[in-house]
Amino acid sequence: MTEFNTIDDLDVNGKTVLVRADLNVPMQDGKVSDTTRIDRLAPTLTELAKKGAKVVVLSHFGRPKNGPDAKNSLRNVLDALSAAVGQTVAFGEDCVGDKAKAAIDGVQPGAIVLLENTRFHAEEEKNDPAFAKQIAALGDLYVNDAFSAAHRAHASTEGVAQYLPAAAGRLMQAELEALTKALEKPERPVAAVVGGAKISTKLDLLGNLVKKVDMLALGGGMANTFLYAQGVDVGASLCEKDMADQARAIMETAKAANCELLLPKDFIVAKEFKAGAANRAVPADGIGADEMALDVGPKTVEFLGLKLQGAKTVVWNGPLGAFEIQPFDAGTNAVAGLVAERTSEGGLLSVAGGGDTVSALAHAGVEEKFTYISAAGGAFLEWLEGKDLPGVAALKKK
Ligand SMILES: Nc1ncnc2c1ncn2[C@@H]1O[C@H](COP(=O)(O)OP(=O)(O)O)[C@@H](O)[C@H]1O
Ligand SMILES: O=C(OP(=O)(O)O)[C@H](O)COP(=O)(O)O
C-alpha cells in the first residue's frame, strides 16, 4: 500500500502514539458480547507498545446525545481490551485536557492507555478544528486503525490527522487490502443484504448502492421503513417514519438502475422485545397495531434463498431481525446458513461486515464460511460505493 504511511514508516520508540480505534462493540447485560473488533485491533496496540511507544487509544462508543453517561462510558470495554492485549490498560476519564494528560503522564513507554468516549464532546462529530487540535496536543504521532468508523468525518477520525504525522494501523491496512482483493471487480449478479437498526444514517448510502448492485434485499428496521413508505402499517415496529420520502426516492433510483428491491414477504411479530416473547408469523401487511416485526418470516427466508441462488457475489450488513433475542434470530441464521453453504460449495463470493453483523454471523455459526468478514458495516458499504472515506483520505501521503 504505497498511498499511505503505515506503522513501518513511523519511528515510535519513546513517542506517544494516538491510536484511533473502533471500540464500538456489541454489548449485552453490560458486558462485551462480541470481541471481534477488539481482537482485530490488539495487534496494532501490542506492536506499538513493544516498539517502545506510549499507546493512547481513542474511540467513540454508542451514540450519546447529552454528554457523558455511564452506559456509553468506554470503561465498559476496559477489561475486554486488557484481556485482548495481555496487559492492564490504564484509563483516562476524558479524551482531552488535564484528565487525559494526567492519565498519559501516569504511564511508562510500553503501556496502553484508553481515553474516555470521544462522543462525550459534541465537537467530535462536528469535526471541530480546535477540538482536533486538543486531541493532537496529547501525542506525537497519529495512527488510525478504525476502518469501521472511517466513513465519519469526525475530529478523532479525520481532523486530528491534519495536525500530526499520520499512518494507517494494521487493521486498517488489512481491511483495505482484503476488501480490494475480494470486491475490486465483483462477479455479477451482485446482491446486497442490508438490515439492522441504523436507518437514517444508512439511507444515504443505499441511494448510491442501488446503482452498483443488481439486487438489494432489506430486513430489520430498514425493511420496516421501506414498507411503511409503501403504505404498509408496520404497527409498533422499529421504523423511521420521517425517512419515508427518502425511502421512496431510493425505490425510484433502484427501479431506474435496474436494481431489484427485495422486501420481506412475512414477519415474526411479538408484543414484547424480549427472549421467548409470544410470537406469530404474519404476512408483511398483517402486523397488528401493538405488534413489532422482530424477524423476517419463513416465506421471506425461502424467497431470499431463491433470489440469492442467482447471485455470484453477496455483500451483507445488518441482521435481518433482533438476533440477540431468541427466537428472533431464526431468519438471520437461516439466510446466513444459505449464503455460507453456497460460499463453501464455491459458487458464491460472500463479504459481510458490521459490529452486530459479525456477532450475528458468529451466533449463526457461519463466520468462518464467508469469503471475508469485515469489522466494518456502514464504512464497508460506503467503500463499496466507491466513496473516498474521510478517515482513509486523511491518511494519504501528502
Ligand atoms: N426488526 C428489528 N427490530 C428491532 N431491532 C432490530 C430488528 N432487526 C435488527 N435489529 C437490531 O439491529 C441491530 C444491528 O443493527 P446495526 O447496528 O445497523 O448493524 P451493524 O452493527 O452490523 O452495522 C441489532 O442489535 C438488532 O437487534
Ligand atoms: O459500529 C459502527 O458502524 P456499523 O454499525 O456500520 O458497523 C461504527 O462504530 C460507526 O458507528 P456510528 O454509525 O455510530 O458512527
From TrEMBL:
Its main location: cytoplasm. Transmembrane segments: none annotated. Substrate binds at D22, L23, N24, R37, H60, F61, G62, R63, R119, R152. GO terms for cellular component: cytosol. One of its GO terms (biological process) is glycolytic process. Pfam families: PGK. (2R)-3-phosphoglycerate binds at R37, R119, R152. InterPro entries: Phosphoglycerate_kinase (IPR001576), Phosphoglycerate_kinase_CS (IPR015911), Phosphoglycerate_kinase_N (IPR015824), Phosphoglycerate_kinase_sf (IPR036043). It catalyses: (2R)-3-phosphoglycerate + ATP = (2R)-3-phospho-glyceroyl phosphate + ADP. Keywords: ATP-binding, Cytoplasm, Glycolysis, Kinase, Nucleotide-binding, Transferase. Its EC number is 2.7.2.3. Monomer. This is Phosphoglycerate kinase. It comes from Azospirillum baldaniorum. The lineage of its organism: Bacteria, Pseudomonadati, Pseudomonadota, Alphaproteobacteria, Rhodospirillales. The gene is pgk.
